[in-house]
């Protein structure tokens, strides 16, 4: 249960940084399409067809990709979003 809480804290922080970066005019050009693709993947109809596989898949892959997106951001956007 502690691992799930830790994962949730990391995801919350990554989402906060990503939300901040998306609202900045100096964001990288790849950020908006990449975020849209992750959102579409998380909401894909495949999750409805196979609920257990979809939940496990979203619980592992989506947080990892979100963390990767945040790690690929320029350092100034990451630092400003963490404050």
TrEMBL record:
Domain of life of the organism encoding this protein: Bacteria
Assigned keywords, A-Z: Membrane, Transmembrane, Transmembrane helix
Transmembrane parts of this sequence: 59-77
Name used for this protein in its record: DUF1232 domain-containing protein
Organism field: Paraburkholderia silviterrae
Classification lineage: Bacteria, Pseudomonadati, Pseudomonadota, Betaproteobacteria, Burkholderiales
């Amino acid at each position: 249960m502690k691992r799930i809480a830790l994962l949730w804290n990391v995801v919350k922080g990554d989402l906060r940084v990503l939300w901040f970066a998306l609202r900045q005019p100096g964001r990288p050009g790849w950020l908006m399409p990449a975020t849209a693709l992750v959102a579409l993947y998380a909401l894909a109809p495949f999750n409805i067809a196979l609920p257990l596989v979809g939940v496990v898949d979203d619980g592992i892959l989506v947080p990892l990709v979100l963390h990767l997106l945040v790690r690929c951001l320029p350092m100034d956007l990451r630092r400003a979003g963490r404050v």
